[in-house]
């Protein structure tokens, strides 16, 4: 496997990890877009930058989950 195959592989893994979180929080279609974006970024700009590109999505999913749960709590 050459370096381009390796970066694509790592990008797909990073995209899949974030996509799994997206399935839980947002549903399937947005998760599929996140996985595709992770694979493209991992292939073209390297695995580290691909994962950094997906980090805002991950943080957004966690914040969305937190506020969604917090809004259901009766104070």
Count up the helices.
3
Cα-atom radius of gyration: 14 Å
User: What's the total count of β strands?
Assistant: 0
The end-to-end distance, rounded to whole angstroms, is 56 Å
Helix content: over 70%
Q: Which structural category fits the helices and strands?
A: mainly alpha
Outline the low-pLDDT stretches.
Answer: none
Biggest sheet character: none
β-strand percent reads under 5%
- The coarse overall form would be elongated
User: What string, H for helix and E for strand, traces the elements in order?
Assistant: HHH
Number of domains: 1
Mean pLDDT: 64
Keywords: Membrane, Transmembrane, Transmembrane helix
Transmembrane segments: 29-55
Structure overview:
The chain crosses the membrane at residues 29-55. The chain is an all-alpha fold and 75 residues long. It has one domain (3-68). Helices cover 89% and strands 0% of the residues. It contains three helices and no strands. The chain has helices spanning 3-25, 28-45, 47-72. Helix 1 (3-25) packs antiparallel against helix 2 (28-45), helix 1 (3-25) packs parallel to helix 3 (47-72) and helix 2 (28-45) runs antiparallel to helix 3. It is elongated and about 50 Å long. It starts with a helix and ends with a helix. The mean pLDDT is 64.
Short account of what is shown:
89% of the residues lie in helices and 0% in strands. The chain has helices at residues 3-25, 28-45, 47-72. Keywords: Membrane, Transmembrane, Transmembrane helix.
């Amino acid at each position: 496997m050459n370096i381009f195959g390796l970066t694509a592989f790592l990008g797909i893994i990073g995209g899949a990890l974030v996509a799994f979180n997206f399935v839980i929080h947002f549903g399937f279609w947005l998760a599929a877009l996140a996985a595709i974006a992770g694979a493209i970024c991992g292939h073209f700009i390297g695995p580290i930058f691909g994962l950094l590109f997906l980090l805002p999505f991950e943080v957004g999913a966690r914040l969305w989950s937190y506020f969604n749960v917090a809004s259901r709590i009766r104070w």
